[in-house]
Amino acid sequence: MSGDSGLTIDNISMRFELPNGSHVQALKNVSLHLEQGELLSVLGPSGCGKTTLLNIVAGFLAPTEGKIRLNGHTVKGPDAERGMVFQQGALFEWMNVRDNVSFGPRMAGQSANEYKGKVDHLLEVVGLRDFKDKAIYELSGGMQQRVALARCLANDPDVILMDEPLGALDALTREKMQGLVLDLWKETGKTIVLITHSVEEALLLGERLLVMAPRPGRIHREYRLPFAERGVGADLRAVKKSEGYAETREEILGMIWEMEEEIMGRTESAQ
Ligand SMILES: Nc1ncnc2c1ncn2[C@@H]1O[C@H](COP(=O)(O)OP(=O)(O)OP(=O)(O)O)[C@@H](O)[C@H]1O
Asked: What start-end ranges are recorded for coiled-coil regions in this protein (predicted)?
């Protein structure tokens, strides 16, 4: 398809200048195109530039080279068309659940009549219908991430960017939330980019999966996988037993292991 629709990461490089005069090449020549509605997971050893890339797509950071295009225009800064879900702690603690979720529409000048139906629907979808009036501190970690997802969706972004959104959750809650992310992806048709440190999560939540390599941060390998599609509305444990899953997991684990070993080797020889 033409570059006019979807999200294009166009030859992005990012170099951080350090106060001591040296620099870090966090990303080098990263290019990728996602059609609207594609679900991408990004995996790689610590320091390979995952968060830097997400922050550039969000418009929080300007790249040293290259550009981000969304539906034909160049990204110049943060915008509601690109929503972000962080690992934790990004909710407004002093507002209740409903006010957190309606924050974006209220800031966009919508009246309660305009946004109420949408907010109620989203709270229903993320399973928080009976928690509208609760304060954030009254909710468990998993429920707080449900609020974060609903708050992001209330802005109706084209792209949802997630930086380890489930990383702080216990295993069972995490699995439930993985199912929710897949169901929301199918229901809303949003483009989703999700960073994770978990190979299993990247396999389950990546219709496309990028393995990045460090120094400089770059795309090492890209996969197109059937597991996200299989997981929609399904038992994720069954997906983990399905054809090709274990082999792909082992292949990627081996790849990341080798990269980590190489980093350790380099670090040790530099000492
Ligand atoms: N503001 C900054 N100034 C200087 N260096 C930075 C800055 N932000 C990131 N870096 C460096 O850029 C590289 C990539 O960092 P980044 O946080 O994007 O990696 P990551 O893959 O997300 O790591 P992790 O998995 O540990 O979160 C690292 O070497 C990091 O130290």
From this structure: none
